[in-house]
Design a protein that fits this description.
single chain, globular, five-stranded parallel β-sheet, alpha/beta, 22% strand, six-stranded antiparallel β-sheet, 21% helix
Length: 423
Amino acid sequence: MNALVDGGLLRQHLIDPEICIRCNTCEATCPIGAVTHDDRNYVVKADVCNGCMACVPPCPTGAIDNWRKVPVAAAYPIEEQLQWDTLPAELPPEQLAEAGGDAIAADPASAPAEAPAASATEDVFDPRRYNATLPPWSAAHAYTNLYGPKSPLTVTVAGNIRVTDAGTESDTHHIVLDFGPMPFPVLEGQSIGIIPPGADAQGRAHHARQYSIASPRNGERPGYNNVSLTVKRVTADPQGRPMRGLCSNYLCDLKVGDAVQVIGPFGTSFLMPNHPRSNLVMICTGTGSAPMRAMTEWRRRLRASGKFEGGRLLLFFGARTQQELPYFGPLMSLPKDFIDVNLAFSRTPAQPRRYVQDLMRERAADLADLLKDPNTFFYVCGLRSMEEGVVLALREVARDAGLAWDDLGPALQREGRLHLETY
């Protein structure tokens, strides 16, 4: 906090609850654990935040980039922030003068941030340090925040089909939303927010839930103003206890013709390259396949047009079983000379558990060649627990091939070539 204090005043870092979509990016990105949340709000701990700004660029809505000048002794506690529906107004100058004269708190963008405390372990691996916050140099321009929580867009359900086998635990749906005449330009890798109807136990409207777009930029149906989502019905919490996910069940139960409230789009970095001969390495689990499906379908359409010379597409896709893998049928029908598909199943009866990082090591020679190519871009999407294993596998492949990961890893991040989007 010291870097944000001047003359008894604190420039307190706050999150705007009105536009926050609770995507967890800020908490996952913060290197010192200054962000926390409950089932309502994400908040910043004033006594921990050092103004390092690491959380600001990845935020899809800009909700994280809010600051209030307050007396140090009167900093907003997290207990109060967790109850907010809106940000508090700026304090008047007279009230600030009583605490610290006319002093202005240091600007976190220019003030030296306190370094995180050194770990007792010399080499603590943090995959997020390699996550790019910039898109590929040839990515198309992404439009964001066209519609917010105060002015959501009402769209119509055009389709809702299950894309995992009936009778399996994973009830995953492919949902198509039609935007009619309303402008809603999107790119592969972006996301939207869905506002479920109704209110919570305190009578407050439900906040939006974020979902990655599963369709390419010219629509689920080419030339139509629609997008698709990949949604898994949530029936248990992370500990396996029964629960009914509010928004996922709402979406999976939708019928054609139903109206849905949408905000967004969001995302400016998890975008695909547009230059010829660029390679895509896509690594995903479960519904993390949504942006990979969008990217693959866009490349497939470009290939069919004969107007684009694409590079290699290498996919590592993990699920519990083949029956629980979304889009298995359509995926296996894609031409082998178009996409190189590698599937990992962790719960196939009488078979050893296999994960995407296991397949990556088996394809080490191919991955090493792609790591050497500056036209290769890597995308990881799925459960947050996969991040470390995947990036460690990339590091292992690089080092075994004689590549200096200490140089390569930061270069992948700096050049917008390694993107992590997990939940």
